[in-house]
Structure formats: C-alpha cells, structure tokens
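Q&A log
Question type: sequence-to-structure
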Amino acid sequence: MSNNHTYGLILAGGRGTRFWPRSRTRTPKQLIPFTGTRSLLQDTVDRLSPILPPERLWILTNAYLRDEVQRQLPDVPEQQIIAEPDQRNTAPCLGLAAHLIQASDPEAVLGVFPADHHIGQPDRFLEFLPPAFAAAREGKLVTIGIQPRWPETGYGYLEFPAGATPGELQPYPLERFREKPDLATAQGFLSSGRFYWNAGMFFWRAAVFTEALHRYLSKTADLLASLPGHPGAEFDRMLGEVYPQCENVSVDYAVMEKAALDGKVAGIASDDFGWSDLGSWNAVYELLGSDGGGNAVRGSALLQDASGCFVEAGAGKLVALLGVNDLVVVDTPDALLITDRKRAQEVGRIVKMLEQQGRTELL
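Response status: OK
Response body:
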C-alpha cells in the first residue's frame, strides 16, 4: 500500500494509571514491554512498518515522555514527535496533528493508532488498513470496529447497518457511536451482531478532519488554526499559550458521534485479529496464558496451593504465594500492589489517592 500521501499517527501520551506501580508518569504503560523486550509503542511501530515506514509516522506524546519516545524510536524524525503541553483529550490532539501534517502535505491521509494496544495477529490486522485508507481518501471519516467476543461494559460500541459481515474488507456507512453500556445492553449488542467495539482507530484526510473540527468544535479548531504550520521555537511558544485553551473533549464525543449522524462516517467490520486494549493487569494475565495451576508469572515466584494468580516480580526478589487465589501481585523497588484480579480495573483509584496525598515520588 505504497502512497506518498499516507501517514500514521500514533497516540502515545497517556498515563496508564491502571498499571501502577509499574506504570508511572515518566514510564507509562505504552513505554513498557509486556511481552518480549519491545514496548507497546515499539510494537505499534513494528506492526505498521510493512506499510508505514518510520519516516511516514508522527507521534503525539507529552513533555514528560518526549525524550524516552525519541530514545525508543530513533528512526522516526525528531520533528515528527510532538509533545502536548497540556492534556486536553483526543479531539484537540488529533486536530493539532492534522494541522501540522496538512501544512507539510495538503493531500495527507492519516491513520490514527493508539500506542498501548496489543494485536495478536498483525498480518490479519494489516489487511484492514488499505480499504480504510482508501475510504478516507474519498473523503470519509473512517473507523475500524472490533468484533466483540463478550458483552463488554467498559468499551464504547459502533453500530453498523444490518448485513455488515465481520471480516469483509469494505466500508459500511456507520449508523452511530454508542456509549459504554450496562450489562443488559451489552448483551443485546452482542446478540444483534450489529455492534462492534470502538478501538479508537481512525482514518481521514487531514483536510477533511480539520473541516469537521471547524464544524463540530469551532473554538478548538480556530485556536489550532492560529498556530504555525511547522514545529520549532515559535510553534512551541504559541502552542504553550494556545493549547490549554482548547476544549477538553474526546474526538468520539466532539466529532465522530455527530459526523456519524450526518452520514459522514464509514466503518469497517473486522473479524478477530487478536485485539486487546490491555486495560488492566488482568488483561495481561489473560494475554500471557497460565500454567497448570492457572497462574501467570513474570519474574521470580514460588507458588504453593495458589491458583488464578498473576505475579509481576521485580528483579532480585522472590515473591511467594501460599494458599491464595485470583490475586494480582506487582512488585517494584518502591511499591507493592496486591489486589483481587476481578478488581484490577480499579487500580487507578490508588493513583488518585496518591495524588491527593501529594505522594509525587510514587506517581
């Protein structure tokens, strides 16, 4: 899929609070290797490399992480690694990227990819990208829906028209975006066959997205349009003044939900390519697979009469579990997390408590 106007935009600015104590402000989830030796960010770049080489990638991160992102991705041009001065959610950051890339290439077509997801079948995943980029070139805002494997209440959903078949490499007019449902609604979504998980992967011409931002989020669009079109000292100065004034809102809510109702969004219904958002330590447990006792261990651990446990042990320390079940145990030099696997999604609450107590050395 060689095209001189095709780019990849990787979102790498999150904090990953549900992976505390391993994930910290300066070493968040996307910069950590969960399988093998490559971080999730590096895995994302590797996965895209057959169709998007490093020189066609842009990375959106934050000031805390910029140096480490550059270190991990030495082949991505330095001027294409952009640091947000303030977290304002995905609508402003995607508008910022579209502004910069469109200035350098008015015909640019972007694919947007989160840096902190896992994809177990990258070859199958890549088959969905050419039709997504093709629909974007025709002027559509495009997204890929993930075929749901269970009635998940923690994801947003995409509603496809009747007759959409998972795995077809063609876009359908997307009917609407749906918020995270309760369990009964999610079960209905699953049984209908028309609803897919929203994984936050998008495709559009930079000019088309900029136009949509002006239509649906005009204040932010006007602020971003006032910035220079090229990174540099003046850009950095103005960005620091302008960006915090942008509305703090997701692209789904600000643009895509409204554009879908206006008939401007196309969706591609994927089949299973092993996607996971790795939303908690429990997701890592499921990804790694377990031993005969149902335990998954990274590091040094001794388990006796224990089952269903996940252990992430720091170097040089043995973690021993006796007579316990379904725990997450994560050991780092300065903090130890122990929680029920069923409550792994709530680890971010610990981070909020540390923030309230001013324990910045642990954040």
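Response note: The chain is about 30% helix and 25% strand.
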